[in-house]
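So, can you check these tokens?
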Amino acid sequence: MNNWGGSVSAQHDDGQTGKNLLRHWQDCRTPGAPIPSYEAVVLGSLGRLADRAALVTTRAGRAARILWAGQAFGAWLAQGAEGAEGPSAETLPVDALAIELREPVDEMVASALASGQPAYGRCDRLAAGVVTSTRLVGVPLGNRWGEPFVLIGFDGASVRTELVQAMFTATDQGILALSTIRDAAGRPVDFKIVALNRGAERLLERPAAALQWQRVGQLFPGAITARTIATLAAMVERGGRSAFELSRPRSDGGTLYLKVEAGCVGDLLSVTMTDVGDIKAREASFRLLFENNPVPMWVVADARDRFLAVNDAAVAHYGYSREQFLSRAPADLAIAAEEATELGLPAAGSLHRRADGSAIEVSLFQRAMPFEGRQAVLEAAIDMTERRRAEARIAHMAHHDALTGLPNRVLFRDRLGEAIARHARDGEEAVLLCLDLDKFKIVNDTLGHPVGDALLREAAERIAGCLRKDDLVARLGGDEFAILVRGMDLPALADGLIARVIAELGRPFRLEGQDCHIGTSIGVACLPRDGTDPETLMKNADLALYRAKAEGGSTFRCFEPEMDAWVQARRRRENELREAFARGQFSLVYQPLMDARSDRILAFEALLRWHHPEHGPVSPAEFVPLAEETGLIVPIGAWVMQTAFAEATAWPETIRLAVNLSPIQFRNRSLVETVRGALAVTGLDPRRLELEITESVLLADSAANLATLHELRAMGIRIAMDDFGTGYSSLSYLRSFPFDKIKLDRSFVSQVGENTHCTAIVRAVASLGTSLGIATTAEGVETPEQLAMLRAEGYDEVQGFLFSRAVPGPEARRLIDRARATVPDDRAA
């Protein structure tokens, strides 16, 4: 008897080549080199590994050619080469390999080059119904004459799997292989079971040992078997395929219903048997439920075909006879759109006409199902006419404002919830606007409630007139309205809509013979930026609305996270900040900037710290924005300059000082005099000073800010652009001002070598700096691997925890002393 389980076998490798290759590659690595060289790994060192390995040349980060291959590897590789002769694969283009070898080899080589680490791949080949899977490992090698090599070898044994055997055992269906038995005249008279799977054992209720090599007619004598043999014999005579159903008694007294599909090639047959007993039982239950169901039901092939069957309830409810029904299609029941409109009924498609001409609104329920050997659709029609009318009246009253006819708060929250669900499902964003009428209370109190109601109705009409078809406006109560906008290009859409609404409500209202000017204030919250649930979005839009009203009205404000603190604790934190500055709670720390090639300290960046006497250290991300909003950043910034400049005078003259400038400091036009005064008081040489700015300095009032930067640079001060790459117009700023340095943001450095986009940006910024003659600094360097890649790309300076955290002034001086002690005199400067 055949064994129908999948079989495996090993070829090519004892399982140790991959491990030995990796161990050899690791042993050849040297400190400071990202990957070992070709000479160290290959020349005179591979030994027996060479027989099971191959060397691949690369071009532009991809596999190019097989430079050479060992005998075993070459013989294996040649099996997959198009036009390769013999076992040698020397100088074979990778593109000449068959796709099942070319793609995994190319992917593995690209991965090894990108990561600088070993990479793995698997090649699957199909031949004569057998899949052979071979695992490979590739290691990158340095090449002093050009682009790197990748050495690849076997990583474990090849595995063979016979597909036919695997598929034969993977199904619950019964599968038989039969051989035709002919009589003396050559007519098919019976069939012998050559092979079978476990599904066939289960359906035929006998073990394989009792079935294999036996005649079907002798195993199962009787009329059913005779008819089955005759059907199969006729198929063998004419050739091709056949499908039929049969039933036979089961050992438990029940009946087994089988669907049989057979195909033949000469005298050999492949037979598949499927148990369809459950289907037969469902068909019987369906007829019982269908014919006696009180709900009108019918069966159709599709909406264009005629009815295949209708039940008694459909005949009674619609008034057509069974014969009339069966001569029609479902489309014949539907009322046309034009007629539905004339009758004031809902959209066509849910409306049917009965035999007496009356129209009914129906709700159709559909389910696909087999019917009399074909695919069909079962439909049930629920008459919803009166129920829908009553529900529509109640729903409208419950979800709309009686005065303006607009959706009310309940309906608006439902639509907002739907927008949130759409965002969670497909990422669609939305904007929520909360607005109220600035002077409505004055009008309502002085001219009376009827005039106030008229004002609200006209305001609602004006707001609705500003919206698109898919936008929604609701009256939440009193003079408060809300608008929900969703779709593409939301920033531009929202800006245009806000401007139209403010303009429309800014026009005078003619009430009681006089013009009334009211205006509106608008608060804006965005999904998902400002919240992902209705409560948060409404609260944040309200906070923005309060801010707009507090700033005089007839304007809008977008929600910002600081608004919540502004409502709840802004004043307390603001007072703490002022007190901290007055009591000297601020301090400075310094983080070194290192020469990327020599690890020499080139400069220190001064960083502001606040140690709260009760809460401990406060994050600069929290207190610096508050200092900017309150204007405290200007005196704090002046103190930072005085303190940092004085500290830097104690350093060697070759070490520079970097100080960050806030965009708010640029609004104070005394910035240049503040810097000049601090330099004069401390005696710091301006050529040792670097001032770091972010792109936001140039976003507003750029002409004045550029003039300030030119004044500072004329004093000999270096200007650096900090957080480069995080804004949207970095390159235009490099063109508008001759920066001395660009500092690559840490977010790119943290993923260099791991994220291809970040790696590309790191490389591009280095090339940009070289082309423009601008020094480049990489922030946030934390690992030796990151440092190695940045050095390879040609960065001038590096900064990060790999070298030192920010430290107080005395510790910074000790870092300088230690660095000078370990560097020769001619490099100490």
About this structure: The CA atoms of residues 82 and 96 lie 5 Å apart.
